[in-house]
Amino acid sequence: MKPREQWTSKIGFILAAAGSAIGLGAIWKFPYETGANGGSVFILLFIISTLAIGLPILLAEFVIGRKGQADAVSGLKKLAPGKYWFLIGWSGFIFSFLILSFYSVVGGWILSYLGRSLLFQLSDLGDNGFAELFNGIIGNPWEVLIAQAGFMLLTVWIVQGGIKSGIERASKIMMPSLLIFLVILIIRSLTLEGAMEGISFMFVPDWSFFTFETALISLGQAFFSLSVGVAGMITYASYLSKSENLGRSAASVAALNILISIMAGLIIFPAVFALGYTPDQGPGLVFIILPAIFDQLFMGQFLIIIFFVLLLFATLTSSISMLEIVVSIGVKNQYERRRRTAIVFGLLIFLVGVPSALSFGVLSEPFMFGYLFFDFIDMLTSRIGLPLGALFISLFAGYVLTKKDVHAELNEQDVLVDIWRVLVRYVAPAAIIIVFVQGLMDVFGG
């Protein structure tokens, strides 16, 4: 029987975990949520939410994963034999499957844009040309399906290679490249005339946006961007050796997530303000407004290629973690079945994602509660699935794992372990319940 793999280095694990966390949450969703919710105040609340709520749950997943040393279902069965806590693992399986089914659709859109940018087709489209292009792409059934299939093929190709040769190797290439591309684009954005208005929007507080609603959205963004709640970090940590410091690794992942989110803002908002746009453009910010902005810049066609390569890398680092959750549970201890399992689940995820891909064209009628199929799956997973998973992970770490168990994994001072246990026992569950209830109202309230 093939032995269970491990990460070959601490940096490989951190880059893979950070890549899982970053994804579209940092590069796509963070900028448009920031733009719609007042800029600096939202960023401040996002940082607080990440450190006070997201980080403790992230660390809880790390502790559970490394202690279990198995996939999320088997590991939780081992840690709580005869109990039903292993359902957390199956919940992660189901929601990762569903998230990737629509996430791969957005990955396909990115591939379509990248292909057009490489052919220099993202220029001189006029005032409404970029909006028409976006609507044309997402409404074209053959293009979205072929692009979605291409994105899933890339994801399957990486995951079937295993931890060392697949996920870790890809993360070591994509994450440093992502940081380099971010820096290049930030430099260009900050050198635009009028860029300081965007900097002020990001870092000078407008306290009129300091509301309960903004705090709630920032908390939801912290969950979404850290990828907690679907057992992804349990899965990744299960491949980690006992010699690594979990606390430092979790802090590194959270810090990278905050850093890259802010770096994405430093690309977008100085350019948005410098060229006369408004920041509250919503989800179309990346696909409609940014190409229009780059089209007005010197060497803009080259910069747009860099941006969509960056976005593709960020999206892939998250998609491979979601597929790994599914594959690890499907493989169990028969690691020689990894390649076949990755291909089979990749195909199934693609098929389940077909209605999402067609939601803006031939299946544009509301599916349920007034939502398109794509939007319903997005809401169901991000507003209900992620918070629900995070809640039970937090409760398991706080009440099932003993203090001795936690000490054995964290090897930290008593006071730090005590603070962490208070956060995962009381603070995080209370915050998660608020997000979960609001999510129910959003989904079922229509």
From TrEMBL:
Keywords: Membrane, Transmembrane, Transmembrane helix, Transport. InterPro entries: Na/ntran_symport, SNS_sf, YocR/YhdH-like. The keyword Disulfide bond does not apply. It comes from the Bacteria. GO terms for cellular component: membrane. Its main location: membrane. It is a multi-pass membrane protein. It is found in: Membrane. The chain crosses the membrane at residues 12-30, 42-64, 84-111, 144-163, 175-196, 216-239, 251-278, 298-331, 343-364, 384-402, 423-441. This is Sodium-dependent transporter. It comes from Planococcus salinus.
